[in-house]
Structure formats: structure tokens, C-alpha cells
Amino acid sequence: MTHVKASITGVHGYVPDYVLTNAELEEMVDTNDEWIVSRTGIKERRILKGEGLGSSHMGAEAVKGLLAKTNTQPQEIDLLICATTTPDYVFPCTANLICDMVGIRQIGSFDIQAACSGFLYALTIGSQFVETGKYKKVIVVGADKMSAITDYTDRTTCVLFGDGAGAVLLEADENGYGILDSLIRSDGIGQPYLHQKAGGSRYPPTHETIEKRWHYAYQDGPQVFKFAVKNMADVSAEIMERNGLKGEDVAWLVPHQANRRIIEATANRMGVGINKVMMNIHKYGNTTAATIPLCLWDYESQLHKGDNLVLAAFGGGFTWGSAYVKWAY
Ligand code: UT7
Fold it and tell me: What distance in Å separates the CA atoms of residue 74 and residue 105, rounded to the nearest whole number?
């Protein structure tokens, strides 16, 4: 029996032009470049400006580029999944909007909400449709306009986040390449530490929720940090162990970009040198569901067919996960 896996056959990203530097943030809140760089690794982030532009705009740009570079027509796509925490609307979902913007019609498309682990969740889900043979070409997008839910008077969060999107194409592979394994986890214990208080059905928007600044991302940083370090490292070690991978077998760790110190702790635990870690947090900050595909996009030219990649993420929920990918091109 041939074992079909879903392989990533293309990746593309999009970041907006506007660069929000640490120096500009110093003008907005009581912070400084030294604190931000030493505590997080972030030097600048991109911000989507422009009336009426949401996460779908960035997702659609990433998908358009992906279709062009993989010579794929919109009508060849069988399914599109978008991971986002900052959908354009409560409904319809951002995946529906992206499909419309790039001319993909009459297929299934839906959003996944798993905060910063969203791309890993969506990748795991998308890969199942390819493995079963149900679909031939699946697009997985991670897109977040974090600036839409960032409180630029709160120095503990506003220095962290940025906007961006990335997308991958999944196709069947029978030669041992692709998404060979993945793990997704969640624990609602994380809700108090990382959330947006209002705007959903529990607390719909009112004058009061706006006055209380409840429509912004709230984070208890040190608490999240503790869980993130432990769980991202654990899940990366677990996927290596159950696939018989040692540190030297891993060509690249592709971690969610929330904090350089969390990334370094994960690499340490895996026995992977920092030179084998994809890192772009310094230029994009934390773009939530977009961090992993943006890393793949940035490092695409350095990847070789057969490279073993370990993807790892941790985020709100809490949610976390990892994937073992053998690069296919
Ligand atoms: O992506 C989803 C998951 N999210 C994460 O994984 C993020 C996890 N958490 C973190 O990355 C870190 O906790 C942060 C980067 C958010 C914060 O770093 P920290 O080392 O945990 O700092 P802290 O919150 O303990 O704050 C230390 C000090 C505090 O001052 P006091 O109380 O010691 O006087 C803060 O008020 O730094 C202060 N501080 C700042 N100072 C300058 C907090 N934010 C800032 C700031 N600029 N922007």
C-alpha cells in the first residue's frame, strides 16, 4: 500500500510596507529599544494601513503570489483554510473572502481559530484531506492584522505584535516527503492569561466594553511565557522522539515567533543549534498565525529537498503543537 502524505509544494508571504520601529514606539509609550530587543528580540514590525483593509487583504496577496509561483490556476484549488485571530468580520469567514479576492469559487473554505497555533492546526487539518485522497490541492493560509486588536497605550503588548500573512500549497506525495507527523494540543486553563475580553457573544460590543478597552488583546506575559517555554519545548521533543529524530537530524526548527528567548529554549531542549533555527521576529514581531509560513517564505531559498523540519507553536487557548515535515523541493 502506498502511503500518501501531504507535501508543501509552494510557500508565499505578504507583509505590509509600513515599518513600525522601536524608536516610533518609544514616542507612543514608556518603552525603549534596549528593553524590547533584550526581552523579545523584536526590532520592528509591519503594520497594515489603509481604510477597509483587513486580514483577508494580506491573505489574498499571499495566495495570489503562491498561485503565480506554483503555476496553479484558481480553479485547480479544492479547499482553502485560513487560520486567523483577526478575521475581517465575525462572519463571513476570512477564507471565504480570500477565495473571492483571488477568484477561487465553488469550493469549501473555512477559518480556524487557534490563536498563535492556528497555522499548525490548519496545516494538520488540511493535510488530512490530501492524505485521504479526497482533495488534490489544498491551500493553508495564516493571516493576522494584530494591529487591529493591539492597544497602543499598553506597553506590555503593543511592542510585541505585527501584521502579515503566509500561505502554503499542499499536494499529495508518495515518495516519503511532506507532513509526516503532527501533534496539536489545547488546554482552556490558558484563557485568563491571553484573550480578548469583548467583541464575541459573551460580551458583545457596548460603550462600556469600549471604555474599558476590552476589544484589545490582553496578555499576562510572564504567565504565558512559563507555559510557552515548557509546552513548545515538550511538544517539539515529543515529535522528535516518536519519529526517531536526534538534534543532528533536524535541518531547521521553524518556531512560532513570539519571543526570541522562548525560541532559544525550544532549540536547546531539541539539541538544535541556533544556526538551524528560522528566525524573523526581529523584523516582523509576533504576527500570530502568520509567523510559521512567513519563516518558510523567508528561508525558502535555503531549504533543500529532504530537509527535516520541525514546526512548533504555542499560543492563546492555550493551544500548542508541532509538525515533522520532510521538505519536498
Ligand atoms: O504568541 C502567543 C504567546 N505569547 C507568548 O509566548 C509571549 C510570552 N511572554 C513573553 O514573551 C514575555 O513575558 C514578555 C515579552 C511579554 C514580557 O517579558 P518579561 O521578561 O516577562 O517582562 P515582564 O512582563 O515580567 O516585565 C518586566 C518589567 C516590568 O516592570 P517592573 O514591574 O519589573 O518594574 C514591566 O512593567 O518590564 C516592564 N515592561 C516594560 N518596560 C519597558 C513591560 N513591558 C515593557 C516595555 N518597555 N514595553
Answer: 8
